[in-house]
Amino acid sequence: MTSAKSLSPGPVLPAASAGFPWRPLALILLLALAWRLALAAAMPALARDGVTFCWYARALGTQGPAWLRSPDAQQHPLFPVLLLAVQRALTGAGVPDGPLTWQCSGQAIALAASLLVVMLSALLTWRLIHALALPLPDRNAAIFAGLLATLLPLNNRLAADVMSDQVHLVFYLTAVVLMTRLDRVRVALAAGLATGLAFLTRPEGIAPLAAAVVALLRAVPPLPRRALAARTLALLAGFLVLAAPYWATIGGFSQKKDPLRWLRPDEAAVSVIPETPSRPDELALGKLELLDLSWYALAPYALYTLFRAGRVVIPLLALLPLINLRRRLLEAPLAPVTVCLAGHFALAILLLARFRYLDPRHMLVMVALLIPFAAFLLSRVLELLRLRGRRRAADAVLAVVFLPLALRSLAVPNAHDGFLRAAADWLTANEPEAAGKTLLCGSSPRRVAFYAGMYHAGWNERTEDYDGLLAAIRNSGATYFAIEVATSGDRHENFERAGNRVLLARLRTDPAVADRLHPLHVQPGPDGNELHLLAIRPP
Question: Given CA atoms 305, 311, 313, 318 in this order, what sign does their dihedral have?
């Protein structure tokens, strides 16, 4: 293990003057491209949020900016705008329009963004080494950072799916890279623009704005007042020129988890699950497995989720460099990285406290910001081992770090959801009149509606709200109903399917709707579950 002095300022080693490793990183990018293409091709069905983005983009194409003011527009607009642009380019080139065109458009954007994430991870590592004058082999560190970003399972999964995370991370890392050296007004302007693009992709993209202000205030040597004011104004101008039109359009800060709305009395009680059936074109919220954590358990659980997101390896490797650099964490150029890390950890705790759930992908930004520090330690340890002639030990370290990441990255995204695609294929083949009709279902089976070219009426998935489901069957206008149930026993009754088997049996025997529900197809699924498709006949 390296000493506390090993990462302190000092003369740069000769290896650090060899230049940025473009050629090795080009090979890493080819590896990342091939890996992600294989996962994208093998993915049986897009994620449920992927459907949200595709339908958002489609609505944006038909309704224009007015859609942004809709209560159903629960995502930030930049990724759907890009998705719509690629989809229209493909259809303009003669590709038939359809669900797969939308899916491939989203996958192409996410994949391209993920390659930029790999390059930006290496560039941020390189810049920090030089800005901090660390006695580290910068070429090796940059290469290791690129490999960590390439093999991170979370990056691979999100790059192969129709998700906004990789696009958001590109703009976020671009802003942070620029903030490591805010030495000119135009650099501050570019950092503000990158932050604005990150915010238009996801609401937490605003965090680098505060980080950049701290970086300007903590510059060494301190900036003259005029220079500080000019760069701060350029930073804010770059951000506001992109964010302000969005705020003016929606009349608020964000359509997704707007903290300003939480301050209003009528928003005091937050309902994570909708109380009533949604309209046919509404994007329903998923049924979430909520956590009941005491206040003192929020930070430990957030930390646990961070280690899950980084597959333990990245946060663990980053720990010692962070400790060694603790006295410089609030000074430029580390200040923006530190503020972003602290800000996202605070946001994770807030998400847990208010909404009672936290997914590992919510920690992706933190993992990406920890990658340079992990690369610092890895390059230093390997250098010391090789200087001592312990090449086998160095190879063992590489295997321990990269092999588990590589094996976990082989997992196909949404591998357990292929039965939903199969159910949609059955509908398309056996119920051709279903296209253009409405499917009543919960959050996960709405992918059946997506692939079958149907509209979607959301069911809140609350089995205790039986009357609400009856009302939806009778009044939503849906002509089909889909429900996922466990085949037998409570051991398959996870939180999402809990009670659905009993509920379906009750519907089939209820005189109010039994004569309107006609069983069509049962699609077996993994983990002892199956999807039931039923037709809803007119009264």
Answer: negative
